[in-house]
User: Fold this.
Amino acid sequence: MLFTRRLTILLAATILAAPCLAAPPASVPIPSLVKQVAIPHSSFRLANGLTVLVHEDHKAPVVAVNIWYNVGSKDEPKGKTGFAHLFEHLMFNGSENLPGDYF
Assistant:
């Protein structure tokens, strides 16, 4: 009986949440939806050129750190492609000086 009640509540919650999880209509351009999202943050640049974005949310006692680098195939100049993939293999497959799965 308890299982049936929980299953009914779960199904009802899923049905009620379904419109929120649906993809936006095709007529709404995604960039316009992205512009509607505003996350308060502060931004500053360190002396070494690193840009730091800080967003504080005191709802839970949790800290998260993300590090993003502007490197990869999209950042490679024309005529010099493939370096990001090469470095990926060097990092994760080891090299002569760092054998094995060092990273």
